[in-house]
Amino acid sequence: MIPADLLSGASLAFAPLLPWSLLAPLVGVALLAVALAALRRARGSLLRLLAVLVLALGLANPSLIQEKREPIKDVVVVVVDDSPSQAIGQRRARADSALADLTRKLKPFDDLELRVVHAGGDGGGTINETHLFDALNRAMADVPRRRMAGAVLITDGQVHDVPDTLAKLAGIGPIHTLLTGDHDEGDRRIAIVQAPSYGLVGKSVDLTIRVDDMPGRQSPDAAVTLKQDGGAPRSFRVPVGRDFRIDLAITHGGQNVLELEVEAAKQELTLANNRAAVVVNGVRDRLRVLLVSGEPHAGERTWRNLLKADPSVDLVHFTILRPPEKQDGTPIRELSLIAFPIRELFEVKLDEFDLIIFDRYRRRGVLPQMYLENIADYVRKGGALLEASGQGYASPLSLYRTPLGAILPAAPTGQTIDQPFRPTVTEIGRRHPVTADLPGDRVGGEPDWGRWFHQVAVTPNSGAVVMQGADERPLLVLDRVGKGRVAQLASDQIWLWSRGFEGGGPQAELLRRLAHWLMKEPELEENDLRTRVDGNRITVERRSLEPDPRPVTLTTPSDETSPLPLTEDANGHAAATVTAKAPGIYRVSDGARTALAVVGAVNPPELADVRSTGDRLAPVAKATRGGVHWIADSQTGPGLEIRRTRPDRDQNGPTWIGLRTNGDFIVTGVIDAPLVPVGALLALALVALAWGWRREGR
User: Fold this and answer.
1) In 3-state terms, what secondary structure has residue 512?
2) What residue spans carry the region label Disordered (predicted)?
3) pLDDT band (50, 70, 90) for residue 387
4) For the chain, which domains are there?
């Protein structure tokens, strides 16, 4: 007895006792013989036909093959949009409500497997676009297309990875869209049309912006506020719907962060796209350095080689070979190739230099006091001065006894120290970017570099002592004066390192950092707060000369604030990492300094148009026979009905969505039941033949 529940998998099969190639001709010949006998009206023709048919059926050996089948559940994937634009209005609440409603209505279907995936939220990467189809493909990666009942997208419609070839969606089943927004939404946004990546310090760059109202213009113009590096804002009017050019000055090297904000319109979905930011890296065209050597000595070449090795540096170098009061009969024209242009350098073009270096200089009447006063004013206004002390700094001819003494951080004691010593980095020096992590420095032990033998004894009046020499006396002092910076090296023997004496030392790295710190390289700020952005991950770094346990304050693009604790190491670094949940401008402040982090692209697609729309997904619905429905409409009625549908029927209606019934199964067993007994058929065939012969013989 074949069970009734197995009949749906029944099929007829033949296992012939003879090969078909032999059985078919034999049956054909037999039928032909019977046909000829019938034409001759021979008796027993019907009995012979019966015998041939019975014999053929027995030799064909028919059987009933019954498959034992186990049904497989169809799969429906629900993709929930968690992108930042879903936080607008009631969209998030509607999405949660729609997901709960779908889950409840799909629960009674025992032949359905529900998979829910979230996309567009915190995934550790960039958050500039909403990718729902990537999430859909990942969710059904292990499911054959023949098992897919369909998919439901719960979104505001702003999806940025719709397949360009809709044939890629074949076999998934109907793809339905449930929109979370409202009809006829309006918004205003500001966009960066054109912005340079780099700009020359002291020059201006052109920035083109555009303010758009969607769907139509709400006003002829709008007020836009511009901030540069968090400074004082300035406002101007910008026509709506047209490009507008802004002239911006690049004030410093490194990142120049420009913030733009447009006033709100009458219809606004979000103010997140009313703000835009762009980062322009400030670069110096050429760095102009003036090096004045007070006398020829072995260390001159060290300074010259360092500065000439940098292709971005224009070096002007003068060495005073003989003081004016010395008379030895040598003609002036043999003492220098060109006349020393004192007035041109120290009065007319002084402000054009980025750095002035006095190397082993002493007062000899070459530079009048007025010009030294000009240099002091130049530093106070933002210039940079480096003084490398020689024997003369401890003498009555010291530069400290000139107007420069008011800006130099260390005063001479009148003594010099002539004994071997190894320069060492101080505790505060290990926190300062100029001397931190110098190659060869060892905490708690002697550094791995050569000795020096001469040092001027000085007493620091201001600034930070980052290196010390003999008897732990100050060797390198760094200070800020007004808007400028001053560095003082109380020895002229750094050239010993460049010559490789006792293994040499990190003179190239030290002098490079020192020069760039003086010229205000942002990477070498000793008290600094900065941010670094990698995708949607913001790393906050604070460097300080003094330990600072205070947390910083993080402000999101939506003006939400929260404290952010920093973890500090022994070298003055404190850092923390936070994941941004929305594109835009993030502010980090410690009370004294503010740093900006721009997350996302210049014009993030996620904020380009935040209005809810079904236009992007309408072609997908049409290609897969799905539908586009507004959740707000269904909330006022009984809601959308869910139906299981046949593949050849409609999959969508005004008040319902369909999920395809595939009827897929796996075979767990097979029953092979012969339909007729072979022996009985052979006996019947013999009886029929014998009866036919008998009839014919009468």
Assistant:
1) helix
2) 540-572
3) very high
4) 4-70+668-697 (no CATH), 73-184+611-663 (3.40.50), 187-281 (2.60.40.10), 287-518 (3.40.50.880), 539-599 (2.60.40)
